């Protein structure tokens, strides 16, 4: 689990990337999302101070950055586990067992929605849509790894493999 208190700072190389993102758009406001993503990739989550930092870099009201960060579920507003499991429970996934998968993993890990296991390895989150309706139910790990047509047996194997990779 990442440090709960951090002072967001981009180094010189990262600032070049910030300037690149700012240059891609006619208005700096459009660079909010890639800068928030940079913060999350660096620190594991996006603190209120980090949102203010992004606002300062882009000369935007802090409330605007907060609005963007809180609108999208891909931005973590508090620390998450090393493996953050997002399980879709929107209509297609719900009808194909999304809640069964979510509840199974929740019981197996002993945590509820948006909680972290005591060892900091896993966190889970129920999300609205991961864009995989034809291959429901769907789970994503750390916004990068996708598992579709998931069964509880496959979820068990996935958790075991992730735990063993530590």
Describe this structure in words.
It is a single chain. Helix 2 (32-43) crosses helix 3 and helix 6 (98-109) runs parallel beside helix 7. The chain has 2 domains: 12-71, Orthogonal Bundle (Arc Repressor Mutant, subunit A), CATH 1.10.10; 83-164, 3-Layer(aba) Sandwich (Glutaredoxin). It is built from 7 helices and 4 strands. Strands 2-1-3-4 form a 4-stranded mixed β-sheet, with helices on one face. With 166 residues, it is an alpha+beta fold. A hairpin with a 3-residue loop joins strand 3 and strand 4.
Terminal CA distance: 13 Å
Gyration radius (Cα, Å) is 17 Å
Integer count of domains: 2
CATH fold description of the largest domain? Glutaredoxin
Largest sheet: 4 strands, mixed
Structural class: alpha+beta
Residue runs with pLDDT of under 50 for 5 or more positions:
none
Strands in their spatial order, largest beta sheet: 2-1-3-4
Q: How many E strands?
A: 4
Task: Classify the helix fraction into a percent range.
Answer: 40-55%
The CATH superfamily of the largest domain is identified as Glutaredoxin
List keywords for this structure.
Arc Repressor Mutant, subunit A; 4-stranded mixed sheet; alpha+beta; 7 helices; 166 residues; Glutaredoxin
Provide a concise account of the structure shown.
With about 170 residues, the protein is of the alpha+beta class.
How are the SSEs ordered, and which strands pair?
Blueprint: H1 12-23, H2 32-43, H3 48-58, H4 62-71, E1 83-88, H5 91-95, H6 98-109, E2 122-127, E3 139-141, E4 145-147, H7 152-164
Parallel strand pairs: 1-2
Antiparallel strand pairs: 1-3, 3-4
Helix pairs in contact: 2-3, 3-4, 6-7
């Amino acid at each position: 689990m990442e440090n709960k208190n951090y002072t967001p700072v981009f180094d010189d190389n990262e600032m070049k990337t910030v300037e690149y993102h700012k240059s891609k758009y006619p208005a700096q406001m459009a660079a909010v999302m890639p800068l928030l993503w940079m913060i999350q990739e660096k620190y594991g989550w996006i603190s209120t101070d980090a949102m203010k930092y992004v606002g300062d870099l882009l000369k935007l009201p802090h409330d605007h950055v907060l609005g963007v960060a809180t609108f999208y579920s891909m931005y973590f507003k508090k620390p998450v586990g090393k493996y953050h499991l997002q399980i879709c429970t929107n209509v297609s996934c719900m009808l194909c067992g999304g809640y069964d998968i979510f509840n199974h993993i929740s019981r197996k890990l002993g945590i509820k929605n948006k909680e972290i296991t005591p060892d900091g390895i896993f966190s889970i989150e129920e999300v609205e849509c991961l864009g995989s309706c034809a291959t429901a139910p769907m789970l994503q790990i750390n916004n990068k790894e996708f598992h579709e047509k998931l069964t509880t047996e496959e979820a068990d194997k996935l958790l075991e493999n992730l735990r063993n990779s530590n």
